[in-house]
Design a protein that fits this description.
It is built from twelve helices and nine strands. The chain is an alpha/beta fold and 332 residues long. It is 53% helix and 12% strand. A seven-stranded mixed beta sheet has the order 5-4-1-6-8-7-9, sandwiched between helices. The chain has a two-stranded antiparallel sheet with strand order 2-3.
Length: 332
Amino acid sequence: MTAYDAIVLAGGAAKRLGGADKPGVRVGGRALLDRVLAACEGAALTVVVGGRRPTARPVRWAREEPPGGGPLAALDAGVRSLGADTGTVLVLSADLPFLGRPTVDRLIGALDSTGREAALLTDADGRDQPLVAAYRAEPLRREIALLATEYGSLAGLPLRLLSQELDLARVDADPLASFDCDTWEDISTARARIREHGTVLDEWITAVKDELGIDLEVDTGLLLDLARDAAHGVARPAAPLTTFLVGYAAAGAGGDGPEAVAEAARKAAALAVRWAEETTAGTSAETTAGTAGGPAGGTQDGASGGRADGPAGGAADGTARGPGGGKEADAG
């Protein structure tokens, strides 16, 4: 894929959020800004236009003039922070909780394949999203400069003045990719959606990886199968402990991360199966032993013994002491 730089606009007053620090609002345990930075982590250089703050990965900071001057002024500040040799620029807003790498790849790919000056994402209603877009750097610089000359300042100008002057390609994508958080209701909707059954594990794994600073493709199914085998074959607390040890072993092994995890997981899963087989075999042996010492033993010690000590024994003793014994006594 073509190399690109990224500009993320993280300023604005967030009036509909009551002036809250919108880029820092958390969805799924991660700041909105960090979620967007994860989507464009393939950028050679990332410029964030807005107030400095801790971020999940290194970025270059810039501020628009005047502060709060609007998206075009912020975009101009971002472009000025790029190198002269930048060819492709990805432009994003910092409030896109569901933007992912596949959408970024599609935008960059569309710019390459069409030869147009910009590739914009369109939302579910067909509206252009100039802050989810890829631009060729030279036409972008040209049109920003022309607008600054025409209007005297970029402050307060709408982005459509820029996009309407460019030769555009439009990209349809997952409607969630363009979902932005302008209100607290939007934030609540985003937080609820990531906890839906079909996505919660992926969201959680991504959040954990970002928190721990690791970049590793995780085979969730493989690890869940291992946890199940450990829980069923050994004991329930063995599940989290086993997956932890697998990760530790993979880290110590070095080499290819995903393959090291898969190999350690396979070994641990095989051990769990062997452990379970021993438990099953032991239970079967106890059952067999119980059968031998139960009905069969009962026949020997119960029915047969009863006949030796009971009726048969009683007849023998009875002959001596009972009816038979009585005859002896009478005879004596």
